[in-house]
Write a structure and sequence with these properties.
Blueprint lengths: L7 E6 L4 H12 L4 E8 L6 H12 L1 E8 L10 H11 L4 E7 L10 H15 L4 E8 L1 E2 L8 E2 L5 E4 L2 H14 L7 H5 L3 E7 L2 H9 L8 H8 L7
Helix pairs in contact: 1-5, 3-4, 4-7
Length: 231
């Protein structure tokens, strides 16, 4: 990624708290960056929506919410609806970096996270959104064997300082109101990791691979070759 003191960064997530849980440490660690957070669901939720906006104030991020269906049945949404909502909410400008979900999600499994990831990558590949670089969250729960953990061999991996992690944990437990023994609080990672793409064709291939490393060395080089580019 281009190194400069101030970057324009968009974070595009499915739910309130996703921005904090999966990339809150990066946001808190870079207060000089210009952050804009798009949350596609829960805009009419009288509990979660106010908490999201309060969290953004602490994160020093501008942002906006949509109201896509996020009912317990997790009925798949039409991809055009997801893409259209993103275009309606995201400012029509070029970003230095866009951060979003991974095509495989962050845990087993939440359809909305997967849908958002695929839509963002498709919009980038088609030129409807513009960025120099895209990161997708790199976490795994071992197919429900453990709480989601950052992928240590992902191209971008950052261990959070104790101070930053505590601020992030307080956002989850105090601002969002999750109990300290909740999934969200137990999950809150002390490191954050991301798959990194500087080319939309590589990101599209990543979607085709299901957002996971494959046995094909050529496919895996997509991620490894960016390993040393850093933050």
């Amino acid at each position: 990624m281009i190194k400069k003191n101030s970057k324009s960064v968009a974070v595009i997530v499915a739910h309130p708290d996703d921005e904090t849980l999966w990339t809150g440490g990066i946001i808190l660690s870079h207060p000089s960056w210009q952050w804009f957070t798009v949350c596609l669901c829960c805009g009419s939720d009288k509990d979660r929506a106010p908490r999201f906006h309060k969290a953004l104030k602490i994160l020093k991020s501008d942002g906006i919410m949509g109201d896509l269906d996020d009912g317990p049945n997790q009925k798949p949404l039409d991809e055009k609806e997801v893409e259209g909502t993103i275009l309606d909410l995201l400012p029509p400008k070029h970003f230095d970096l866009i951060i979003t979900h991974n095509p495989s999600g962050e845990y087993t499994r939440h359809i909305r996270q997967e849908e958002v990831s695929k839509a963002v990558i498709k919009l980038w590949h088609s030129g409807k959104i513009s960025t120099y670089e895209m990161w997708t969250f790199a976490y795994s729960d071992g197919n429900k064997k453990y709480y989601p953990r950052p992928v240590e061999n992902a191209p971008v991996y950052q261990t959070l300082t104790k101070r930053i992690w505590l601020r992030k944990f307080n956002l989850i437990t105090e601002t969002y109101g999750f109990e300290k023994d909740s999934f969200e609080a137990e999950t809150t990672p002390r490191a954050e990791s991301f798959w990194q793409f500087t080319n939309s064709y590589e990101a599209k291939k990543w979607v085709s691979n299901g957002g996971v490393l494959t046995d094909n060395p050529h496919d895996n080089n997509i991620n490894k070759k960016n390993m040393n580019e850093g933050l």
